Amino acid sequence: MAADSLGPDWARHGAGWAANDAVFDRIFAPVTDAILTAADLTGAVLDIGCGTGTLLERASDLGASAVGVDISADMIDAAARRVPQANAVVADAQTADLRALAAGEGFDRIVSRFGVMFFPDPVAAFTNIRRSTAPGASMTFMCWQDGHRNPIFTLGTSTLIKALDQKPARPEPGSPGPVAFADPDYLRGVLTDAGWSNTRIDDFSFRADYSSADSDGVEERLAVILATSTGQSVEEAVRAKLGESGWSDLLDGVRESLRAERADGILTHEGHCWLVSTRAGT
Ligand SMILES: C[S@@+](CC[C@H](N)C(=O)[O-])C[C@H]1O[C@@H](n2cnc3c(N)ncnc32)[C@H](O)[C@@H]1O
Is any ligand 1 atom within 6 A of the Cβ of residue 10? Predict the structure, then answer.
């Protein structure tokens, strides 16, 4: 099940993501493009859970005035370095005064790439986000479909977690985490209750390609696994229990399992997401 079923603690684990943002940007390139196409970025843009600033950079390049919020200081530091012309702020999107970050009437566009699934109270969070918007504003985000449909949560990770005495629990549907909005009916209800309307939830499928001119992608996939909270938790547990050589042997096992998954010499996997477009009600 989900790699992060141990529960991502982003304030703590943001550094792991930030250190590997080039790989995340590579594998999520089709996702980024789909968000940009659907969002029609213009005016004042707010990116929720902006991470290291991928969408902020693209929004700024398009001439938008870009603000990003993220709960992780490591992510925001990286975003501020990458997109100095944007305003990147450490803030909890569920509770922070987001309206105060917008000039004029509020934000015209809200966007997010996988940054809105971690709220303890999603209705409160999406209500708070809506209150930061200008009249006629829209929101476009990508979130994951069911973990069973998404190898990103299991490829290689399943080999890694075999080393744990106790396997991570599967998250309850709707609980905060990467697959919180796997059920589109639940997601639609959350958005409606938070005052969003005209909601579209479209299937978006893509292929995550870890390879590059110099690599078959195996090391990149391993880096992504180790950047997740599951990877980091297993590393801590295995190093404590089996020492350096035990950890090294385990990594070799993961590499072997990943090599076996290559097709045409490169490592890819499919991804199944929801592309969500909605409008702020009055
Ligand atoms: C899966 S990462 C995606 C990061 C970035 N959007 C990207 O695509 O590279 C999820 C992000 O959401 C942020 N996040 C989680 N809960 C948040 C909250 N309550 N408020 C703001 N950001 C949050 C995390 O710190 C993390 O950077």
Answer: yes
